[in-house]
Every structure is written in structure tokens, then in C-alpha cells.
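SAMPLE LOG
Freezer: B-3
Tube label: C17
Construct: single chain, 198 aa
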Amino acid sequence: MYKTYPFTLEKLPYDFDALEPVIDAKTMEIHHDRHQQTYLDNLNKVLADKSDLHDKTLEELMLSDIDTVRNNAGGVWNHDFFWKAMIGVNVSHIGDDLAAELRKSFGTVEEFMIKFEALALGRFGSGYAWLVKDGEGKLEVLSTPNQDSPLREGKSPLLGIDVWEHAYYLKYLNKRVDYVKAWWSVVNWGRVEELWKA
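STRUCTURE (predicted):
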């Protein structure tokens, strides 16, 4: 559970260079220390004179009807989720239980990855692709624009990839497809399974 206003930036769960060569250290540093910090600073600024929201968690603020609150809270929460979705290159692998559930939901693990990639590559502009669990525990993939979250649809994120250009442009330039395909090797499958079983 997140604490409430004023929010502070969480440290990355690893060093900036921990995801090399898939995601370079400079991208991680800029992405975390500048982009996410900006969302957090803007959120605190927006909330400063809204005392009725000071006891709300990030998850609650992401459901707000106030655009500036929702967007900036999402920018903080989605990034924290994205950092934790990753681990060192080829360190983590899909467990048998999760693989069985992916096959049940998508036919094969490969078919899940194809559908997930299609959403990540098909997201026009900025946003995320997600693997989620719905209210009945079923798995599905979806995409959200900007800093929106599946939480707004009552679905629990299990895995998400950030496809904003600042997540990959220094290394991959405009080749989002190369970034998305390389990204699978840094997915923290243990965390995905943990969230799925929760």
C-alpha cells in the first residue's frame, strides 16, 4: 500500500545498469530520476491545495475524475510497477503454473506473447501494454493510453511494458519493435506469478 501525500520517489530495485544491454543505464537514469520525478513533483503540486485528497493513496488518486490528479498519480504508480516488472537479463523464467495458465487463456505462451507485443506495438503514441487478471481471475491482455491504468477498469495488472518513447529512444531510436522483443529477456516472471496468485 502506498503512503499518502506528500509522495516521495521510490528508489529503483536495482542499479541503473542492471538491465544492460536491453535497457541502457542512461535511459534508466533519465526515465527514473527525471521523468518519474516530474510526475511525482507535479502530483504533489496539484494536491497541495486539495486537502480532501491528502489521505488518498496513489491507487485511489488514479481513479480521480480530476485529469491532472489522475494523470500524474498514474505516472508515478505505472512507473513503479514497470520497474518491478523487470530484473536482470535472462535471470527469470516462466514457472510451470503460470505457463499452464497462459496456455489456458491464450492457447500457448507464444500466442500470449504475440498478442501482448501486438498491443505494445499498436498503441498509437504513448502508453502501456498489460497482462491483467480480471475480477473472476481470468487473464487477458490490453493496452492503455498515456498514464491510464487497468485499475480504472477494475482489473489487476500482472505485467506491463512502458512504450512511451523515452523508455527506449536513446538505444532503439524509433524501432519500438526491437525494444519490445528484447524486453522479454528482462521480465521478472517470479513477480508476475506472485501477483497472479495473490
